[in-house]
Amino acid sequence: PMPPTPSPPPPPTPSPPPPPPPTPSPPPPMPPPPPPPPPPRAPAVPLTSGTFKLSRSNELATGLTLSTSYSLSFTITPNMTQAGWGQIAHVTTGGNCCGYGQRSPAIWFFPNTRTLYVVDGHPSNGNDEVCSGSERPTLEKDITYLIEVVSHPDSTTLLVDGVTRCHEARDGDREVLHDVKVYFSDPWYSPADAEVSDVIMTGLLDSPSPPPPRWPASFEPPPSPPRPPSSPPPRPPPPPSPLPPPPRPPPPPS
Fold first, then answer.
1. pTM for the whole thing?
2. Are 108 and 188 in contact (CB under 8 A)?
3. What pLDDT band is residue 44 in, cutting at 50, 70 and 90?
4. Torsion 111-188-130-75 (CA) sign
């Protein structure tokens, strides 16, 4: 018999398909852009040099133009209290109260106290107090403090020695103020019994002339140097002596 026909070999098993390429990871998110830098601070303009005692109608500057963001700072050493309002500082376009610009700001001691009364007006209320009753700072006698009033279109802040003591929102409707005067203290109230130094303003659209030196309250400025002696001017020559009158004519013969 014939040998059996061999069976054909089985077909080769196909190879499995290659795995799909890995899905690339998404790139990491971009970091957020840095915040914009704060707006540059307005240049500080000193209005005094030296220490002085508050006095009535003491005008430190006049004819200023005040932007919608400004500040007033000074150091103060309070002394005795007084029966009436003790006026400290008054920035005004003219007049005492109560139109916009007439108290921007203005600062007093309450009668019989050293408690600060701070007003910073705006178009909606030209006589708007910055602090509520419980927030009003009280200063101590013979201690020196740094007082700052910082005003923006939407807020006003009172700081004492760099610490915020009062903050009040505003309507954002401030306008540029022109022909501004700065008093320490003003013509309308008795001055507070205190000594002040380092009066500085920011937000001025034009700078005043440099202030004249102010001498400390306990000192007098040095005397002016004596003038060199000068020779007296020469005297004019005396006028010539008048001529004698002519002789009388002889009488006519009789």
1. 0.67
2. no
3. confident
4. negative
Separation between Cα atoms, residue 214 and residue 105, nearest integer Å: 23
Q: What is the DSSP string of 180-232?
A: EEEESS-SSSPBPSEEEEEEEEEEESSPPPPPPP---TT--PPPPPPPPP-PP
Instruction: Give the residue-averaged pLDDT of 57-68.
Output: 94
Nearest Cα residue to 102 out of 84, 119, 85, 116: 119
pLDDT one-digit tens code per residue, 168-205: 998 888 999 999 999 999 999 999 999 999 999 999 98
Which residues share a beta bridge with 46?
A: 200
Q: How confident is the model at residue 220 (pLDDT cuts 50, 70, 90)?
A: very low
Cβ pair 56, 185 in contact under 8 A = yes
Q: How far is 249 from 206, CA to CA, in rounded Å? A: 88
Residue linked to tokens 């005397």: 223
DSSP summary character for residue 111: T
Closest residue by Cα to residue 189 from 106, 80, 93, 104: 106
